[in-house]
Protein: Peroxidase
Organism: Ziziphus jujuba
Amino acid sequence: MASNAFASVPALLFLLMMLFSATSKAQLSSTFYDKTCPNALSTIRTSIRAGISRERRMAASLIRLHFHDCFVKGCDGSILLNDTANNEREVIFNKNSARGYELIDNAKTEVEKICPGVVSCADILAVAARDASVAVSGPSWTVKLGRRDSTTPYPDVAISDLPRFTESLPELIARFERKGLSEKDMVALSGSHSIGQAQCFTFRDRIYNGSDIDAGFASTRRRGCPASSGDSKLAPLELVTPNQLDNNYFKNLLQKKGLLQSDQVLFSGGSTDSIVSEYSRNPSTFLADFASAMVKMGDIEPLTGSAGQIRRICHAVN
C-alpha cells in the first residue's frame, strides 16, 4: 500500500502542475462577459461613440492608447494608472501626447453601473480601440476578452519598449518582432497614422533636413511648424482624409509624403516596400490586415486568471 501511494505522488504533482498551468494561462475569449455582463460591449460602444462625436480626433488617440498599453508589459491597462508620481503617462513618449484617458474612465463608470467589479479597464481599452476604428470608417473585429488589470505602472519599460519616431526600418522591425508581431503586422498597424495628428517636434527635422521627402510636401508642412519654435503645434499625419482610417497613408508613402521618419522608412527601398505598395493598391487588404494585427496585438502578454485585479476606477489600483 505504501509503495503504491508513493508511486502516485509524481502523477499527483503532474496533475497539479497542469492545473496551475491552465489557470495561469487562461485564454482570452470573445464570450468572456456573455453571462457576467452581457451588455458590457454595447455600453462601452455607446460611451465611446459619444466621446468621438464630440472630438473626432479622439478615435486616433484611443487606438494609440491601446497600442502604447500593449507594448509595455502587455495589454493590462497599466498606461491608465496615474495614482503614483512614477507612471507611464509621464514618460516622454506619452506626456502631453497620449490622450483618451477620460473616455476610458467614462466608459468604465457606465459599465460599473450595470456590472460592478466585473469588466477590466484593459478590456474596455481594447474594445474602445475597435469601436474607435469603426467610428472613422475603419474595420471592425471580434475583440478577445478576459484581460485583468495590472496593479503597477511600468515607466521604465515604456521608455525602453515603445517605438521612436526617429527609428530605422531594422530597428522598428526588431522592436515589433520582440512583441511577436511580423513585418506585415507592423506596416498594417502603422496605417493607423492615416488618422490623428503629430506635434511639430516629432517631424521638424524631417521637413527641414530630410532628403527622402517630397519638396512640395516639406514646404507645405513647414508653414505650420517653425524651424525653432512651436514644438507642440499640431499637424494631421495624413492630409487627404485625415479623419478616415483608409489607405491614403500608404499612397502618401509612395510619393515620399510620410510625415514622420518612422513612417517613410516603411517605403525606402527596404523589405516592407512590397507591403506598402500592396496596401496602396488594395484598401480592403489593408483594412483586413489592420484588423488582424489589432487582434494579434491585443494578445500580447495579457494578465488572466487570478493575476492582477479588476480595477474599480481605471486610473488607480483598488
